[in-house]
UniProtKB/TrEMBL annotation:
Keywords: NAD, Oxidoreductase. This is D-isomer specific 2-hydroxyacid dehydrogenase NAD-binding domain-containing protein. It comes from the Eukaryota. Residues 136-207, 238-333 form the D-isomer specific 2-hydroxyacid dehydrogenase NAD-binding domain. It holds the Pfam family 2-Hacid_dh_C. CDD domains: 2-Hacid_dh_5. Gene3D superfamilies: NAD(P)-binding Rossmann-like Domain. One of its GO terms (molecular function) is NAD binding.
Length: 370
């Protein structure tokens, strides 16, 4: 049930926690800006706001900046992963994460044992991750790394292999959420055929719409770009998708009990017909690492780009480092100087919906894990 309208957010208090679980990150690297606080006060005159930045969670210094009494009337929390116990914050109604995933907090008592609304920052990563996917794929197709090597050797050398450009090729996106929809928009502009696969069926135009936060002009909120939709609700559905003649497979699904090891030896073998390129920007554990190495070394797939690995961080000397036709980056595809602004826009969007008595966006389904 949606809450009643409360235009000024009277009775609500927002706590903002930044950089309290470790070294400050680039998430909201400029801090919670004064102009954001000013704008929120203009939009919601009765909203109380308190911020704590770059002080380690539950240390004496943290408790000095945010004593327990500050939690007593807190109703809204913006945080990365730091969460209070339910008894410390009895009035908390809505937790806004700064991340697009929620698996790291699902077992916390506040989330596991209460009905506090939990929302992700889904939508914050779409532009930069889509750029990472298209960059790594095209760099492989155009053999950019080899030409960089020639440049370092001061050698003018033209490779004889023809380039397979993107036009008319088929991309399969496993996980058609906020990130997947922005990827589809970018690759559609390159002339590629879009196939998508979700964990649940989307048979109607209504079910194919995306209700999560989408910046204007980005993504695919109406679900119009894919030519064909698949469901990975069972193994047969996943295999039908992977057998559909993909030139590029992009994995964006979250990590859940169901998706762990989702892509293993049998699934990779289904990509052999067109020797698909595999890009993983979801979670490393979605792919069986040993099976991926074997598929690359044996030419079952033509190449891969991983921004996430299993294990992560990837240890020195791990087999993945020396696997052929593989690009690895250390979980950085979501980095952007605009990250903080986008998280703030999602928070503001949800506060507006709260003030209007509407359902919040990006709500986590605890049962599904995302």
């Amino acid at each position: 049930m949606a809450p009643s309208p409360n235009k000024t957010l009277h009775g609500h208090k927002l706590l903002v926690l930044l950089g309290v679980t470790g070294p400050p990150k680039a998430l909201l690297g400029t801090g919670f800006r004064d102009e954001w606080i000013k704008e929120l006060h203009e939009l919601f005159p009765d909203l109380k706001i308190a911020t704590v930045e770059n002080v380690l969670w539950n240390t004496p210094e943290f408790k000095k900046k945010l004593p327990d009494k500050e939690w007593e009337d807190a109703t809204i929390l913006l945080t990365g992963s730091a969460l209070p116990s339910p008894d410390i914050a009895p009035k908390l109604e809505y937790v806004q994460l700064q991340s697009a995933g929620a698996n790291h907090v699902l077992d916390h008592p506040l989330i596991r044992d209460t009905d506090v609304t939990l929302c992700t920052a889904s939508g914050v990563h779409g532009p930069q991750i889509a750029e990472w996917v298209v960059t790594t794929f095209l760099a492989f197709q155009h053999q950019i790394t080899r030409y960089v090597d020639f440049q370092r050797q001061s050698t003018w050398h033209k490779l004889q292999e023809p380039v397979d450009d993107a036009v008319g090729r088929r991309i399969g996106i496993l996980g058609y959420g906020a990130v997947g929809r922005q990827i589809a928009r970018v690759f559609k502009a390159l002339g590629m055929d879009i196939y998508v696969c979700n964990l649940h069926p989307r048979p109607t135009s209504e079910s194919r719409r995306d209700e999560t936060y989408t910046p204007e002009g980005l993504g695919d909120p109406e679900g119009i770009f894919p030519r064909k939709w698949f469901s990975a609700g069972d193994t047969a559905g996943l295999h039908e998708f992977l057998s559909s003649g993909l030139d590029l497979l992009v994995i964006t699904v979250p990590l859940t009990a169901k998706t762990r090891g989702f892509i293993s030896r049998g699934e990779l073998a289904l990509l052999a017909e067109r020797r698909a390129f595999v890009s993983n920007v979801g979670r490393g554990e979605v792919i069986n690492t040993d099976d991926l190495i074997d598929a690359l070394e044996n030419g079952i797939i033509r190449g891969a780009a991983l921004d996430v690995t299993d294990p992560e961080p990837l240890p020195d000397g791990h087999r993945l480092w020396s696997t052929k036709n593989l690009f690895i980056s250390p979980h950085v595809s979501g980095n952007s100087s605009a990250y903080g602004q986008r998280v703030y826009e999602i928070l503001k969007y949800n506060l507006t919906r709260l003030s209007e008595g509407r359902e919040l966006t990006n709500k986590v389904n605890r049962k599904e894990g995302y």
